[in-house]
Amino acid sequence: MSIWQRIVRQRYLYYMSVPFVLFVLVFSYLPLWGWTMAFQQFRVGKSFWEQKWVGFDNFRLLLQDEQFYHALRNTLAMSVLGLLASFTIPILFAVLLNEVRLSFLKRFVQTVSYLPHFVSWVVVAGIVTKMLSAENGVVNQILVKLHLLQAPVQFMAKENLFWYLVTSADMWKETGWNAIIYLAAIAGIGPELYEAARVDGASRVRQIWHITLPGIRTTLIILLIMSIGHLISIGFEKQFLLGNNLVQEKSEVLDLYALNYGLGMGRYSFGTAINIFNSVVSLMLLFAANGLFKKITKESIL
Q: What's the whole-model pTM score?
């Protein structure tokens, strides 16, 4: 069957996909025209043809700025910590939750665990700040009563703790939600495999190791590849809301850097250059991770 015959035969499926293709085109591809600003000395109010072209000058300024490397360091550090936490903890949580035999308890725990996903980062930041406050913060009160601290500590003012605080807050907020896809993958494993394993005398740990984890292997690899592709694009909401002047050296990520030194200072071309850098590096990471896993595990997303 030729490609045109397949298109005609499946034309209704193609008709259904048109709105989604248009959505991606309008919101993902047409905005790429704005990347031309990175190669201009953009001035508001002037038409496209009136802008002054400066080539790669904005990228040279970017690579010569010491603050850029601080932001890149912070981005990579929090990305790697976030990847380790958001990839391993949800898998462990999903596997353990799958072993719960009481249906009511299982549904209750799952519901409670993914509810924080729907809470905005503004609220989460307020909760975290209040809990870690040196004045009546529950964490300080517990640590002092357990004699682990002699006096309350202002955790939000500690530079060396900021990366871990952000990672912990993100883990609490997203673990339940991220575990849903793993639970769905586990649900697709045939129950006869577990029955055969029990007949052979396999313990629950053995069943998890030899049936559950291999059964969701493809899902794990695909999500890991996608996570690696987003290593450098972690947003700025968490860092912006949880950060302050005392921890700015560790809280400024690339997106915040683009906001402060691009949009905040009216340097739109410079801000666009930063975003292009993020996109290109993310694409390179995605293809590198995809190629590596395709060679090692024979599975990939491309």
A: 0.85
